[in-house]
Design a protein that fits this description.
Length: 211
């Protein structure tokens, strides 16, 4: 099971997460308390492993701006977390994650319209399009089924509930942001506990996997 830590804003946290075995890091370029500048993201990404997924998160952004961020920072996956259409997603030459806000089974009907590499299932919209720390009814997605889709599960995940979420949804990857924070800041202890829970490591194992 793969893990994405979203809302990275500093190098120390990024490198620690990599050492702990994270598979993807998310950098938010949209309105958010975790928003990062192009220059800061570039400085972090340039020292990260090449095979790590470095995901740029955008909300209803112009294609030209997204491509500028990709070119300047080294982002290698684009996450579209707004009202982007299937054609918007198809217009990029690199892998795309399309985020869907799930409030009911009707919201999952959109899934078949998108042919992008990944679909991210998130909780309904709050103040921001993501990172609001709220879960949705996972059984809705489980009943609908998304065979053939690389599903990324987000929305209110923590070390305490992620095992249950994985059991119900069986996603390709889980995505956490506020669930590994203390007072709005990423917490290394919470990141480690989350990754260890997802990867099935024993709590007393103090083994970091360098990537």
């Amino acid at each position: 099971m793969k893990v994405k830590i979203c809302g990275i804003t500093d190098l120390d946290t990024a490198l620690s997460a990599v050492e702990m075995g994270v598979d993807a890091l998310g950098f938010v370029f949209a309105e958010s308390k975790r928003r990062i500048t192009i220059d800061c993201a570039k400085e972090i990404i340039r020292v990260l492993p090449k095979d790590l997924l470095k995901i740029g998160v955008f909300v209803n952004e112009h294609k030209e701006m997204i491509e500028k961020v990709v070119m300047e920072t080294g982002i290698n996956v684009i996450q579209l977390h707004g009202d982007e259409s299937p054609s918007d997603c198809d217009s990029f030459a690199m892998p795309v994650i399309k985020a869907l806000s799930i409030g009911s089974s009707q919201d999952l009907l959109q899934a078949d319209e998108y042919g992008c590499e990944y679909l991210l299932l998130d909780s309904p919209k709050g103040k921001y399009r993501g990172g609001n720390g709220i879960t949705f009814d996972w059984s809705v997605a489980a009943r609908r089924g998304l065979k053939g889709k690389n599903v990324i599960l987000a929305g209110g995940l923590t070390a305490e509930n992620v095992a249950e979420a994985i059991q119900i949804i069986q996603p390709y990857m889980v995505d956490v942001s506020s669930g590994v924070e203390v007072e709005g800041m990423k917490d290394k202890g919470k990141i480690k506990r989350f990754i260890d829970e997802v990867k099935g490591r024993k709590e007393n194992e103090n083994i970091f996997i360098a990537r």
